[in-house]
Amino acid sequence: MDAINSNEAPKPVGLYPHARRAGDFLFLSGIGPRSADGSGIPGLELDANGNYKSFDFEAQCHSVFQNVKAVLESAGLLWEDLVDITVFLTDMKRDFHTYNRIYAEYFKEHQPCRTTCEIKSLPTPIAIELKCIAFCGKQI
């Protein structure tokens, strides 16, 4: 099994790779919207006490998709190779409609399976994380 790490995606917050290839599949670790260059979280500004000053969930959605794409490309795969996506939202009621709208922009033609779950929190002050599986074998 080959571990994949991308310089174009944010560094993992723990000891794990961005992805791991196993047979014909690539399993991506949970990927959030943090900036790859370490400059923070798009759409989020915190005050000195760690409270939200500004919050733009739409910016986080676009950023998380770009981070997933970066990991796929580092593994030599394409967006269209995604076969399954698990979405973790910290506030389903507030964010699902926006997420669903933006998701449809990215998956007009190619539509992987998807599960969306609400969770209480994530390890960093982000509102969304994706866990993805891609097919990396040859299509018949």
Plain-language structure description:
- The protein is α+β, with helices and mostly antiparallel strands and 140 residues long.
- It has one domain (2-135): 60s Ribosomal Protein L30, Chain: A (2-Layer Sandwich).
- 24% of the residues lie in helices and 29% in strands.
- A hairpin with a 2-residue loop joins strand 2 (19-22) and strand 3.
- The radius of gyration is 15 Å and the shape is globular.
- The chain has two helices and eight strands; from the N terminus they run βββββαβαββ.
- It has helices at residues 57-74, 92-106, and strands at residues 2-4, 19-22, 25-28, 44-46, 52-55, 82-89, 113-118, 128-135.
- The model has no long low-confidence stretch (mean pLDDT 93).
Q: What structural keywords apply?
A:
globular, six-stranded mixed β-sheet, 60s Ribosomal Protein L30, Chain: A, two-stranded antiparallel sheet, 140 residues, alpha+beta
What is this entry, summarized?
With 140 residues, the chain is of the alpha+beta class.
SSE diagram, text form:
Layout: E1 2-4, E2 19-22, E3 25-28, E4 44-46, E5 52-55, H1 57-74, E6 82-89, H2 92-106, E7 113-118, E8 128-135
Parallel strand pairs: 6-7
Antiparallel strand pairs: 1-2, 2-3, 3-8, 4-5, 6-8
Helix pairs in contact: 1-2
